[in-house]
Amino acid sequence: MNNVKKVCRLALLCLSVSTLVACSSLSEKTSSSSSENQTEALSSSSEKKGLLAKAKEKLSSGDFNPQDVSDTTIESIKTYEDYLIMNEKIIDNYYTEADEAFKGTVLEDSAAIQELKDSTKKEMKDLKKQYGPLKKAPIQGKEEVIKTLKDYRDNLHEQVEQWKASL
Question: Rounded distance, CA 58 to CA 52, Å?
Fold first, then answer.
């Protein structure tokens, strides 16, 4: 049982770290490209106001509330807050699948599984703090972020399938 606990934590930790690394590299790319864009952007104030109004409209158009972890839902993210919500939904889906897989086994209602869930919640809380003011900002490098989320979802699902096969 300790081995399962260690494997679960290690897998979740690796996936969380890879997600953080991918997103932090996107932030660095955004910083360098934004300074390049500042030197190129000389447009009329009316154009700027129009763009700003469109951006505000997009941001206030509604809250992101994913009902599933399908490709379509993942591809619909727009802001970093949407990314965080989608990431949390993927993790919730993973735990739901894991709970179903562990039903009727010694791992059902395991303290180790609950400890892992609590640890994950803390990591998500820390991740939300890290994004802070960027939450409402449009995602830079959206294709890479979407790919990372899909890979994360697929890896977690594959892990549950492996557990099902071994139980």
Answer: 10
Q: Determine the angle formed by the axes of helices 80-102 and 111-131, rounding to 10 degrees.
A: 180
**DSSP classification of residue 61:** S
User: What is the per-residue pLDDT for 41?
Assistant: 45
Residues 114, 127: Cα–Cα separation, whole Å: 20
Whether the model clears a pTM of 0.85, i.e. scores above it, the answer is: no
Which DSSP category does 105 fall into? S
- Triad 90, 134, 30: Cα angle to 5°: 100
Distance of alpha carbon 157 from alpha carbon 66, whole angstroms: 18
Q: How high is the mean pLDDT in each 10-residue block of the chain (167 residues)?
A: 51 47 48 47 48 52 85 96 95 92 80 86 91 90 97 96 88
Helix ranges (H only) for 41-141 are: 45-59, 71-75, 80-102, 111-131
